[in-house]
């Protein structure tokens, strides 16, 4: 292993830059050269490569986004596209690849390796959604829940001033992790997640009872992928049937993808970046580097993308006991 | 002047609590008692008063929202409602009132004083919109622009990762101050404000040229009251006619009203709170306390609510020169 | 179990208020009354109790410090003091106690229970130091490392402008956890912890080589309890023997104890608060509620306070590979 | 004016990067080329220049520090040094220079222009100290006071938990502006500034009375240049003579120079950067660009560095009324 490549793929998440830095530094530590691939699989096909050394990753540890960019690539879905990507990597002398991304990125790598077993891929779970099996936390998740929480805190200020009802939509198309943790931490009166069927009539009844008893503001945190629909849809169904004079909707959107990564995300980035380089050096392939119980672990791609991660019953209970309603 | 009342009214803004604290401490300093009126003019009509002393305003200097609450009051729009409010104030022995709020709150106070000249009102401009004449800054504006800016910074991270086009809607129904300052500070590629007619075809052309030349992400900051409509409406008209593959819309909404007040807002709260108490003690009435050029000034309510504040030509030029397009 | 008491003890840490709230809400959920004890064991001896209900813990979830206060108590170290405390608890009808604190607080509770087995204590690890055995994280640690990290980020800005050498001292009298994580996340060039003997001549040599090779700023993060002494002592021994023109010392101090708790700390507060109430209801005693691998666990006091927690070899390796020198 | 140079000098301050960006963009807008001078006057003497275009200032608007670096230069204090600097500028074809810095930087420029009138200098007040005459605010001041305030807020959390006495030292060698504003905004119980003689016996008496009456924590904010000495010195003189059981000292130090610039600082950077370029184009020289009452103004260097700026009597009164003691 003389030269490896690293790239970011899929939705960007805070900590990706810190992770690129860790990959580069760990490689240098092991006398391995590093190429950065710009704009994901699309850039791989085009051979859009840039050599990365210590100076190249200087000053990025605390920056959101990804200096390598990301993109979707329809072409990589085709054997021809993957063939081109393979040729570009070979031409550049790449012996192994670190892919920082999610579910889809790992599936792409798996198909690639079936066709081109010469070049091993190792994955790092970079996604704010925390929806990959085999790691306690994905890279960016801790920052995203803190961003969501700061927004909920601010909304509480104004909600409380008016005793208003707020619907706050956080990210999470298939998974309610962001909603659940930011909602518990923000003292949300209710938390709606895709993993649990939403009972609108019950919710309406509970909001009514809560208003009756406590006269305070009420914040409902909703994952974007909840079965009841997003926050706007939910508000439409609820607001005229509850005693609050006014309700408001906030959709946090892409601010959850940005921002300076938290300490936890940067430490995760460091552990995973080093773990990925060491795995390649140990001739591993097709695995995701996870962190479980603070220890670095290796999880086969197929396992990691199975997506059958369940909401923790313990946290569900916490939400149930602490929510107001 | 033995006893004064203080209340918050209209949309809440960060710094209101610091201002309530300043009013109470300044009153105590001058041996004057203070009553807090809960929930604005509505609470005034109901006599929902609470004595405020040092302990009562302990620990609130850095908290968003307002401990006194706010509300709309249709009843106060009627002579009967104002008569009730007057009776409640008289019964409680109130000699003067400090109202922290905006435009509408000062107009309400003006009508009240015409009917009940016995009780003088002095106003403090508490609104994030910075749309009151006679003060360099309104209370909460500095916090709101920093909140908007933090969001724009986060969005830049993810926009840049994908070279995406973003439309970010900030508050400002009639005034573009939040959009202009947060947009300049966030390096927005274009800033759309109600005060300037938006030329959509020109905007489309400029976005196209910008993409052609620079290949970077593009962030358009839009005031909610812009004549082109909000961010969603704008995106609908623009996104298919520009070369960006993807565009995204973010509506910041009520997070702009919350949060810990900035240093500037807390100093403003201190200056204005003391200024209001001193004005009442000096038998002033019907004036708003402003701060101009760092000095406390007094501005008649009629002047302050004229609303003919123009966007600074100097800042418009700054935005023109620094925006990318 | 009809009535429980809760108090905070030892050095305060962010998340204590969120935890008090969780204890109160979990108790109410289980039809149990709650008394708050003010100012730790000192207040227990004086019977300084306050009933806590939902309203009493309203709006504190995001506030640093502790609404119950904390204090040292020499008197509780004596059998007479503990006897008084016991009588106060009995007189107030307290059936069980939740103590949120560290090492010393649990030892105090252990001695108390030996003398007065009638009243069971359950502990929650509230300390920024992360130095209790049996829990992945203590309450307040995540906030503290983020506070330290923010400071290091700011110092990097100015250090880089001048290519300066900085010594940054973070908290940690016996444990280097804060230094290690904030140092890794801040990209520190070296991290000095009590658990590893500091080799000053080697450090001087490494700083020299680093300056020679990279010409960048250099930040050394030092735990206050490092064997080389704190940051001032270290700077004295190092600064004249390295090629940097200027060095600066920053001691972060008590800002690391304050601030709004992070999302992780608030979720921990929720899990631990509920866990403690449920443990008392299940007739447990003398145990600390920890969270391991995201699951709530119960750890006997004696185990938790053994203090033989080692720095993770994995993180030490990470620091070694990523540090510049 | 075909080519201008820009550099940062003296202590760095947040907003310098945003200002460099504004200078570059304003120059490009006016078809003028820009050179960046690295490491202040020292780099000028060495001809350490780098061309700056749009890409070169991409992504720096929100970053603390200065991409151009800063340094002290003993050599520039000599005619020979200035002669070398002049030759370097001439050789590079520089027609005018923008210097972003403080007092000393402007004095250096003044002497330079006396000897080498061929090259005009225009200044931008970049310093956190707010101690330049002729501008309402200097660049970086608003960020610095918010950084100090955040620290005071965190210290209040832990001070309040223990009813402790804290001495917090903020920057300000000759000027108390940071102490005054952050102290007022942080609700400090006393604020000590260089401009007002500190009466230690009176302070001791007031702290005693405050403790007697209110039993709360007590935070004393001290400017580093206060006549009583810094926070450590003050604590030594005070702590044994007041009724607080414990006192703590925090010296905020260089964290006040770093961090993402606030919205106000970035708008100031934009206005001043453009103003400086326009002044050079209008053949102005030897002036500092200030902002007064939101308008860009030009102030001769001699005036700006006179240093006879007084603490606002209005703010002194505010501090007097609102402080606890």
From TrEMBL, chains A, B, C, D:
One BP annotation, GO: fructose 6-phosphate metabolic process
Pfam family, one: PFK
Active site: 129
Binding site residues for ADP: 21-25, 156, 187-189, 213, 215-217
Cleaved signal peptide residues: none
GO molecular function: 6-phosphofructokinase activity; AMP binding; ATP binding; fructose-6-phosphate binding; identical protein binding; metal ion binding; monosaccharide binding
Cofactor: Mg(2+)
Domain of life: Bacteria
Residues given in the record as Mg(2+) binding sites: 103
Role description: Catalyzes the phosphorylation of D-fructose 6-phosphate to fructose 1,6-bisphosphate by ATP, the first committing step of glycolysis.
Subunit: Homotetramer.
Protein name: ATP-dependent 6-phosphofructokinase
Organism: Saprospira grandis (strain Lewin)
Name of the encoding gene: pfk
